[in-house]
Amino acid sequence: MSNPLKKTMVYLGLADEEEAYEEPTPQPAPRAGKSVEKPAAPITPIHRPAVVRQPAASPISEILTVHPKQYRDAQVIAENFRDGIPVIINLSQMSDADARRLIDFASGLSLGLYGRIERVTSKVFLLSPENVAVSGDGTVAQADPDAVPFAP
């Protein structure tokens, strides 16, 4: 098989081996003084099933609020989010550099587990798992100037 695209497709499992492999053609005998390259062995792709652990689709009974002080507090966030628990992260006690680093981590975590990350305020973020719907259009309600203030 001399087509590199076909070899790549077989390696990635996009084509069948029977279609791709041809009978090897006999190579001429090497001449004296020249090096001989051995033909590459055929590559057989490994088909591994994609196993993704999904949290149970049960009603939410808990929301975790975390006030991290250091980046190493990210482990608590990851463990709970991986178990399907929504996490509110309040970054007000962190330095700006560590806060950015933690949000980068949380973004990757939510992307990898098919969840969402949303900014609630400038220093508060919500990580919601895949099975949790968050409603709201993200706008702030404006106060009505003609409304009467609440009186007890």
UniProtKB/TrEMBL annotation:
Residue numbers spanned by region Disordered: 16-37
A single Pfam family it belongs to is: SepF
User: Which keywords, in A-to-Z order, does the entry hold?
Assistant: Cell cycle, Cell division, Cytoplasm, Septation
A cellular component term from Gene Ontology for this protein is:
cytoplasm
> Which processes are annotated in GO (biological process)?
division septum assembly; FtsZ-dependent cytokinesis
PANTHER family xref list: CELL DIVISION PROTEIN SEPF
Q: What does this protein do?
A: Cell division protein that is part of the divisome complex and is recruited early to the Z-ring. Probably stimulates Z-ring formation, perhaps through the cross-linking of FtsZ protofilaments. Its function overlaps with FtsA.
The subunit field of the Swiss-Prot or TrEMBL record says:
Homodimer. Interacts with FtsZ.
- Name of the molecule in the record: Cell division protein SepF
Gene source species: Microbacterium immunditiarum
